[in-house]
Amino acid sequence: MLHKGTPALSIPGGNQFIIDALRDPDKVPLFIASDIVIGETSMYADYIIPDLTYLERWGTPHVTPDVPTKTSKIRQPVAKPLTEETEVGGEKMPICLETFVIAVVTKLGLSGFGKDALGPGMDLTRPEDWYLKEVANIAYGDKKGDEVPDAGEKELALFRKARRHLPPSIFTEKRWRKVLRSDEEWRKVVYVLNRGGRFDDYGKAYGKKTMSYHTLGSMFHLFAEDVAKQRNSISGKYFSGIPTIGGEFDAAGRPLARPKEFPFRLITFKDPYSGQSRTISNYWGNISLRPENKVLINTRDAKSLGLEQDQKVRLVSPYNTEGKLFLRDGANRVLDIVGKVQIVEGIRPGVVAVSWHYGHWAYGSNDVVVDGKKIKGDRRRGAGLCTNHILAVDPILKNVCITDPIGGSASYSNTVVKIIPL
Question: Which of 157, 285, 304, 355 shows its CA 20 to 30 Å from the CA of 92?
Answer without folding.
Answer: 157
